[in-house]
Fold this sequence. Notes:
A: mainly alpha, 78% helix, globular, B: 10 helices
Amino acid sequence: MSLWEYANPVKFLALSARVQPWLWGGAGLCLVVGLVWGFFFTPDDFRQGSTVKIIYLHVPSALMAINAWFMMLVASLIWIIRRHHVSALAAKAAAPVGVVMTLIALFTGAIWGQPMWGTWWAWDPRLTSFLILFLFYLGYIALWEAIEDPDTAADLTSILCLVGTVFAVLSRYAVNFWNQGLHQGASLSLDKEENVADVFYFPLLVCIGGFVLLFLALVLYRTGTEIRVRRTRALMAREAGAARVEA
Amino acid sequence: MRALFLRDLALALRAGGGFGLGLAFFLIVVVLVPFSVGPEPALLARIAAGVLWLGALLACLLSLDRLLAVDFEDGALDLLATSPLPLEGIVAVKAAAHWVTTGLPLVLVAPVLGVLLNLPAAGYGVLVLSLGLGTPALSMIGAFGAALTVGIKRGGLLLSLLVLPLYVPTLIFGAEAARRAALGLEAGTPLLLLAGITAGVLACMPFAAGLVLRVNLR
């Protein structure tokens, strides 16, 4: 029994059907609990007032925006090395989810920044590199859409994903060099010293858990859809071929 | 390899090759900037370095979709692929020819256009140096983008969408070096970083581009 057995679409779909209800349920539960707890049962910050509560959307979505790209990178590598179709389709399925996460992070950041920094947008390194990440996502999705042959598309997009990762990291440091930031340091880290206060910390963790589960559920669901689309196409091609033979 | 390089140069230089289009585009961009932001010399002096870098980058982008697509359509690329030359080498040579016909003229013309934009005297040397260091990377990254989109009909817009984000680090360091020099600041650090990026790109990108081209020629 190895992990690679799930490269078989049938087994993958069976597993994903078994796991998905738990993921959706867990995501719903975590998000409801985390957001309600965060929005209604934590105190207002003494300087930021209630705007601090946007952290429960902003931090998890930003985290998932980066991790979605990372997941695409891993899936692309698996496709390049082992050529499992499910992996390529999972990378394809994750990209739009990542885009939405990036947009949520950018928009919630803007909504928070307007009262706090007095501006919707600043050319701050973190904000700028997120915008660049968004552009990378757009290019990746556009390339998938533009190529008809699925295997060629999978090959080209996974190489783009690898090269894009290198350049996204480079851009991150270049942007740091280019402008000083307004954005505060990390909200969460393994060093306890830097973290947000405990009252905000625990509901935030629940929200992050909810976003992770939601991401997994969405990716599994979309991957399943992609697999079925491809299967339908294969069936239709076969029927068209059979009809031609009869005629 | 040399034959391929000379062939690409000749094709680009002769009629219909589009040589000079990039230069004309660069000139027009620079002429349009004062119309859009106003002619005050102080303002132009401040943004001149950035505008020249952006113009050079866009002019470079303009000719990318011809870099491989023409040879792909008439089948020359298939012939080249069956030659003993590795595809990585072919892409690198084509990028080099693209740089000589597009990047190099831009580097040479930039100081002249700098006069139009009232670039401070201290900035000229570093501007030329940074463009000279940066444009090879632009050509090589562009060759990777061209290899990605070579099989796609009307891939020009997609090519820009794919390539422009990859240009970000080069543009940041190049424009930053030129800007600092124009303001009389020390420009060594961004120049070194720019050189590092170019060296890395020239070393690694031919392999990525060759890989992609192999997929597209399959």
